């Protein structure tokens, strides 16, 4: 199996894992129906954490989907800003990243 195929499999596995986690979060959020005010306040705090985790998961799925689209367009592994090849080390850590280390650092310095 090529590195490219391994990365695709890694992305698809992570997407499946996140999708399952989001389904669990949705189920948990729907299960909170307490009538007791104290319990309701505690559940609301928990819900906020779950909602934040859900938003983070949805954002990561969007990045994974974009990476899969780049793969289908034969653009994966090349920086969307400068066009240079993204290092294998960076893709090992962030397989869905659209930018090289240098462009990411320049972007971070601006913000």
Order of helices and strands: HHHH
Gap between N and C termini = 39 Å
In which range does the helix fraction lie? over 70%
C-alpha-based Rg, rounded = 19 Å
Number of domains: 2
**What low-confidence regions span 5 or more consecutive residues with pLDDT below 50?**
none
Report the count of strand segments: 0
State the helix count. 4
Biggest β-sheet, characterized?
none
Q: Kindly report the average pLDDT value.
A: 87
Which structural class matches the secondary elements?
A: mainly alpha
Strand content: under 5%
The 3D shape can be described as elongated
What does this structure look like?
The chain is mostly helical and 111 residues long. The chain has two domains: 1-76; 77-111, no CATH class. Helix content is 73%, strand content 0%. The protein has four helices and no strands. The protein has helices spanning 3-31, 37-72, 88-93, 101-110. Helix 1 runs antiparallel to helix 2. It starts with a helix and ends with a helix.
Keywords:
111 residues; mainly alpha
Describe how the helices and strands are arranged.
Elements (H helix, E strand, L loop, with lengths): L2 H29 L5 H36 L15 H6 L7 H10 L1
Helix pairs in contact: 1-2
Short description:
This protein is mostly helical. It has helices at residues 3-31, 37-72, 88-93, 101-110. It has two domains: 1-76; 77-111, no CATH class.
